[in-house]
Each structure stands twice: as structure tokens, then as C-alpha cells.
Specification:
The chain is α+β, with helices and mostly antiparallel strands. The chain has four helices and five strands. It is elongated and about 70 Å long.
């Protein structure tokens, strides 16, 4: 039973988790400028009375900004259409919908960070195909012998590990950058009191997608490293 479960995890579950993680990372990376302009973002600025009138339960309408790794989207009020900047690895966020007295503390991380995420995505795509091929090599006839070679197993494991480390590190850098920006933005709003714009900044659901994605990504990477360790033990 345990052997069957192990085989099922390596043969079916791990490739499925690799594909799922790749899709989630891609969505988080491309949002909001390319995909889900008002649904997924790494940082949002939205209308709120929480910082200026903490005891008020009144709803408020106003401008919203959605920031991501490749650019930003914005709308002037809750009912307005969303407009986005062109996606680029060195984005300049368009914050023109925010009032003039809003803190000017929201800037993009260094250009190399989104570029490194793109590199990690390339590694993740290659890893997904190689890992899937190595998992199903016994069902591919003579062609599967190519993926049974130690060099192929070693290369697959290294590509997966590099993609995992580069991508996770890059998103952690962005999370720390945006986390500090959110703290500074909200602190300045709170200090200004009732004269401040009715806004609040927060890290958003894009990061949740990223953490789930890399938790999934870790399973096939560990499986690949385990296969490499077992193969080395037999040599």
C-alpha cells in the first residue's frame, strides 16, 4: 500500500502540483496589468475610513490602485473602469488617481527583481516538462530511456531547485519592499488625522497565491532531489 501511494505521488500528484504552482506563479506575476486587473494584486490602495475615522461604519467611495510586479492599474472610484500601465520589468506606477495630499511612498522594487522572477518562471516551465517526462519515462517506450540517464535526472533536479530558490527569494524581496511601503503610507495617513485622504494601503491576495504556489512547487522539487539521492546511492 505504501509503495502504491509513493508511486501515485511521484507519478501523478507531483506533476500536477508542479503545473498548479506554475499557473499560480504566472497569475501572480502577470496581475494586475495583464490578468485580473481589479481582482489580483500584490499591493492595493483602496478607499477606507479605517485610518482617519476608526469608529465610523460608513461606506466610502474613492480611488483605488492595484500594484503588481510588472505595473499598476487604477480606477477613480468603485464604479469606474480600470486602466492599466503597460507591463514591463522596470515599472513606474501610475498613482495619478490618488489625491495630491496622499503620501508619495509607493514605488516599484528594483528592475532586477521582476526580471529574476521571469528567469525563475522559465526554469519552472522547463522543470515541469522535464519532471513530467522523467515521471512517465517508463510509459514512453524507448524514448523514455533518455530521461532515465543520471545526467538528465541531475539536470532536472538542479533546474527545479534553482527555479524554486530564485523565484521565492525574488517574491520575498518584493514582499519586504511592499510591506515597508504599506507601513509608511498608512502611518502618514494616520498622522494627518481627519485632514488625510480616506485611503488605506495593504498587501494583497497576489502574495497568498505565491506562497501557496511555492508550497506546491516544493513537492516535485523534493521528489526530484530524492530520486537523485536514491540514484546516487545505487551507483
Amino acid at each position: 500500500m505504501i509503495a502504491g501511494l509513493s508511486k501515485a505521488i511521484n507519478l501523478y500528484l507531483a506533476p500536477l502540483l508542479s503545473l498548479t504552482s506554475l499557473i499560480l506563479i504566472l497569475f501572480a506575476y502577470l496581475a494586475p496589468t495583464v490578468l485580473f486587473p481589479a481582482q489580483v494584486a500584490l499591493l492595493t490602495v483602496s478607499p477606507s475610513l479605517e485610518l482617519t475615522e476608526a469608529h465610523s461604519s460608513q461606506g466610502v467611495d474613492g480611488p483605488s490602485v492595484f500594484l503588481g510586479a510588472l505595473g499598476s492599474c487604477e480606477r477613480s472610484n468603485n464604479g469606474a473602469s480600470v486602466t492599466c500601465t503597460a507591463p514591463t520589468v522596470s515599472p513606474t506606477y501610475d498613482l495619478s488617481v490618488l489625491p495630491n495630499n496622499a503620501p508619495d511612498l509607493l514605488s516599484a522594487p528594483t528592475a532586477t527583481t521582476p526580471a529574476f522572477i521571469a528567469v525563475s518562471l522559465a526554469f519552472a516551465v522547463i522543470f515541469f516538462f522535464l519532471f513530467t517526462m522523467t515521471s512517465f519515462r517508463t510509459k514512453m517506450g524507448k524514448f523514455g530511456n533518455v530521461f532515465d540517464r543520471p545526467g538528465m535526472q541531475r539536470g532536472t533536479a538542479w533546474i527545479g531547485l534553482l527555479g524554486f530558490l530564485i523565484g521565492l527569494t525574488s517574491f520575498l524581496i518584493i514582499r519586504m519592499w511592499f510591506g515597508k511601503a504599506v507601513e509608511d503610507f498608512n502611518r502618514d495617513i494616520s498622522k494627518a488625522g481627519s485632514d488625510a485622504p480616506q485611503l488605506i494601503a495593504a498587501t494583497s491576495n497576489g502574495f497568498i497565491m505565491v506562497w501557496v504556489a511555492y508550497a506546491f512547487y516544493g513537492v516535485p522539487v523534493i521528489c526530484s532531489l530524492t530520486k537523485l539521492h536514491v540514484a546516487a546511492g545505487k551507483a
